[in-house]
Amino acid sequence: MDDKTRKKIEEYAKSMRWTPKDFYWKHAFMVREFALMIQKRVGGDKDIVEVSALLHDIGKSKLLGPKHEEISAKLAKEFLEQVGFDINKIKKIVECIEYKNFKSIEARILRSADSMSLLRDKEGQNWYFKTILKNNNERILKELKKSYSEIEFDFAKKFVEENYKKLVKKYE
Ligand SMILES: [Fe+2]
């Protein structure tokens, strides 16, 4: 992917606001960082990994709740077609963002990186726990455990282990 296309995709991700502050795009950019970190070790298509990370939550700007994945996938498809992105890659990016099956390495990377972000990003946690989980300890713990269990790669798990343990202790 060339720099111009990357810039366009970043700008688009930033334009799809779903939190009052800047957390929403910081989250997407952090997921990209973690996703590329995993991709470097385990392989997969770099463009698919990077673009699906940047665009995976854009649907939250329309619907902040379950089923936002479908909307994110649809918006991503439309946008990527419009900027002339590789058709075969668009198909795979859409599959990753739909978050339905995790057969491809890229979809598995996205899910792991997304979960890593929740465990590492303090600002994101504060927003998510308060706004979505209503500061309910039981729900927070459930979400933390789910996120941790969804991180598939050993080194990635290690990367968030300390944060995870601290958080569990805090909310238990
Ligand atoms: Fe996310």
How would you sum up this structure, described in words?
With 172 residues, the chain is mainly α. It contains nine helices and no strands. It has helices at 3-15, 23-42, 46-55, 68-82, 87-98, 105-120, 122-132, 137-149, 154-171. The radius of gyration is 15 Å and the shape is globular. Helices cover 74% and strands 0% of the residues. It has a single domain, classed as Hypothetical protein af1432 (Orthogonal Bundle), CATH 1.10.3210. The structure holds fe (ii) ion.
Secondary-structure blueprint:
Blueprint: H1 3-15, H2 23-42, H3 46-55, H4 68-82, H5 87-98, H6 105-120, H7 122-132, H8 137-149, H9 154-171
Helix pairs in contact: 2-3, 2-6, 3-5, 3-6, 4-5, 5-6, 6-8, 6-9, 8-9
The chain binds fe (ii) ion.
Residues 27, 31, 56-57, 114 line the site of fe (ii) ion.
Task: List its salient traits.
single chain, 172 residues, mainly alpha, Hypothetical protein af1432, globular, binds fe (ii) ion
β-strand percent reads under 5%
Low-confidence stretches: none
Query: How far apart, in Å, are the first and last alpha carbons?
Result: 44 Å
Q: How many helical elements? A: 9
Quick one: biggest sheet?
none
Basic shape: globular
How many E-type strands? 0
CATH superfamily: Hypothetical protein af1432
Label the CATH architecture. Orthogonal Bundle
Q: What small molecules does this complex bind?
A: fe (ii) ion
Within the CATH hierarchy, at the fold level, what is the topology?
Hypothetical protein af1432
Structural class of the helix and strand makeup? mainly alpha
Quick summary:
74% of the residues lie in helices and 0% in strands. By secondary structure, it is mostly helical.
